[in-house]
């Protein structure tokens, strides 16, 4: 196809006009290297003379491009070398017990169970739905430079953030984005940080069912070893301390025993007198452990030792006295873990129901009589006949603090009309009700303390709501935006 002479002459006129006009925008189809350089500089481009030409700099060899991750596998997470902001210490303040307002969804997210990791999935669901745990996790360990898949604390922090701050419609397990890859990083970190010959190594083997309570102990141990600065924060979150006193039934002497520290309560649900499953509710079992423990010991008072000498002469052995021991709480955690011992000495399952209410009042067991109340936020339940097999699920309180959802690996359901029944007897995806094994409570603020806080708020014009005794501000540590400068560097 030929261009008419008239059109060709018009086109040549346009080209001549463009080449003589430095400010005219050259059409893209007429662009050449010389004309584009002329238009950028505003003058006609002049080719340099041979003396003005410079030898081009040597070409630098490009670094090899790192290989892309294989399809379906998450890429290696990295940490920035940029210094992290200063640590916001929980021990300098109080951890908030309110849910952050930055969450973008209200319901739980399901986790894929690639093999026998349902015990991890259920525990993670419970921890992530307990506000005080989320807030405490966001106030510690902000200056780690390890890869996320090699540090349990970093993996927990990343999981907590993406669990509540990403959409539910994200790719599942195995993808390079979404909650699935974050859960995978957590599993890798659990394995990477486990020392050789550690008791938890058995749970890392294939086809071995783990215990959520053992996993919680293992995670706590790993976090404690990171930094001394996190110890007071974890103590306030998890540690429970008791003082024990024993009263001799023969002479009435009272003996104080060393303080006992524990991570929550582990309660037997077998009656010691009848060796049968208990018929008491949860508070009754706690009362039995704290008030009615009987021991056979040797009393060291003068009267009992004299009686012991008589018994030795008559019966050939020292007599033992019955000591009634009571326990009282001296330090209460913000997050209370109550484990029901559902396995006997042979590892067989005890399926007896232990009734409990949404709130647990432990005031009668405190040393100084101060108010101590908890609210149930999540439970772990086990289906199966022994400790080495079966399946774990979780029932959690949703963000509205009213509805309850049951998470069975990837399947999450909120059934109408069941309400707190889903805590007392969680229902699996196959609609089978099973008894709880681990109950996770959050401490409630005493009413007088709330009134004092309101008074302090009204008296202060600026600064923190909670002035410390050393003059520093002890404001509750909240987790709104707690990953800024932490994981997102």
TrEMBL record:
Q: Supply the alphabetized keyword list.
A: Hydrolase, Protease, Thiol protease, Ubl conjugation pathway
Which residues belong to the signal peptide in this entry?
none
Enzyme Commission number(s) from the entry? 3.4.19.12
Which reaction(s) does the protein catalyse, per the Swiss-Prot or TrEMBL entry?
A: Thiol-dependent hydrolysis of ester, thioester, amide, peptide and isopeptide bonds formed by the C-terminal Gly of ubiquitin (a 76-residue protein attached to proteins as an intracellular targeting signal)
USP domain mapped to chain residues: 109-444
| PROSITE patterns with a match to the protein in the record | USP_2, USP_3
> What CDD domains does the database record attribute to this sequence?
Peptidase_C19 (cd02257)
Ranges where the record places region Disordered: 35-98, 445-489
Question: Which terms in the Gene Ontology molecular function aspect does this entry carry?
Answer: cysteine-type deubiquitinase activity
Q: Protein transport: is it a keyword of this entry?
A: no
* Low complexity bias: start-end ranges: 35-54
Q: Which GO terms describe its biological process?
A: protein deubiquitination; proteolysis
InterPro entries referenced in this protein's UniProt entry, alphabetically = Papain-like_cys_pep_sf, Peptidase_C19, Peptidase_C19_UCH, USP, USP_CS
Q: Where is the composition biased (Basic and acidic residues)?
A: 445-459
Q: Name one GO cellular component term.
A: cytosol
**Keyword Ribonucleoprotein set for record:** no
Q: Ranges of Polar residues compositional bias?
A: 460-472
Family statement: Belongs to the peptidase C19 family.
Record's protein name: ubiquitinyl hydrolase 1
């Amino acid at each position: 196809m030929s261009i008419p002479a008239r059109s060709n002459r018009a086109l040549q006129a346009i080209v001549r006009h463009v080449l003589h006009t430095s400010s005219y925008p050259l059409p893209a189809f007429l662009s050449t290297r010389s004309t584009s350089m002329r238009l950028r500089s505003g003058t006609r481009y002049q080719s340099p003379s041979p003396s003005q030409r410079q030898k081009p700099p040597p070409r630098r060899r490009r670094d090899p491009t790192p290989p892309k991750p294989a399809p379906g596998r998450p890429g290696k997470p990295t940490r920035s070398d940029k210094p992290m902001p200063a640590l916001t210490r929980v021990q300098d303040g109080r951890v908030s017990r309110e849910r952050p307002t930055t969450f973008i969804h209200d319901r739980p997210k399901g986790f894929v169970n690639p093999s026998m990791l349902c015990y991890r999935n259920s525990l993670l669901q419970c921890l992530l739905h307990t506000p005080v745990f989320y807030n405490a996790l966001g106030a510690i360990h902000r200056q780690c430079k390890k890869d996320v898949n090699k540090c349990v604390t970093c993996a927990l922090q990343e999981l907590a953030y993406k669990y509540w701050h990403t959409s539910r419609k994200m790719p599942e397990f195995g993808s390079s984005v979404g909650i699935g890859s974050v859960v995978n990083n957590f599993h890798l970190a659990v394995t990477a940080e486990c020392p050789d010959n550690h008791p938890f190594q058995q749970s890392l083997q294939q086809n071995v069912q783990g215990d959520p309570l053992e996993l919680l102990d293992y995670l706590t141990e790993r976090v404690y070893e990171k930094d001394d600065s996190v110890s007071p924060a974890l103590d306030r979150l998890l540690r429970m301390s008791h003082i024990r006193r024993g009263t001799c039934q023969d002479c009435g002497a009272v003996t104080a025993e060393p303080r006992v520290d524990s991570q929550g309560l582990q309660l037997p649900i077998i009656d010691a007198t009848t060796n049968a499953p208990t018929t008491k509710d949860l508070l009754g079992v706690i009362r039995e452990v704290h008030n009615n423990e009987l021991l056979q010991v040797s009393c060291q008072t003068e009267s009992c030792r004299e009686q012991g000498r008589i018994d030795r002469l008559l019966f050939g052995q020292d007599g033992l006295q019955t000591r009634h021991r009571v326990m009282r709480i001296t330090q209460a955690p913000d997050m209370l873990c109550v484990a029901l011992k559902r396995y006997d000495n042979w590892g067989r399952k005890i399926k007896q129901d232990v009734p409990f209410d949404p709130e647990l009042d432990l005031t009668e067991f405190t040393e100084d009589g101060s108010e101590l109340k908890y609210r149930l936020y999540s439970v772990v339940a086990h289906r199966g006949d022994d400790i080495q097999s079966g399946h774990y699920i979780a029932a959690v309180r949703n963000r509205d603090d009213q509805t309850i959802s049951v998470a069975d690996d990837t399947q999450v359901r909120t059934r109408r009309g069941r309400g707190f029944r889903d805590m007392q007897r969680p229902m699996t995806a196959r609609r089978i009700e099973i008894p709880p094994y681990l109950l996770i409570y959050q401490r409630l603020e005493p009413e007088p303390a709330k009134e004092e806080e309101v008074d302090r708020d009204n008296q202060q014009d600026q600064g923190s709501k909670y002035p410390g005794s050393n003059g520093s501000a002890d404001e509750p540590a909240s987790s709104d935006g707690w990953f800024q400068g932490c994981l997102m560097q």
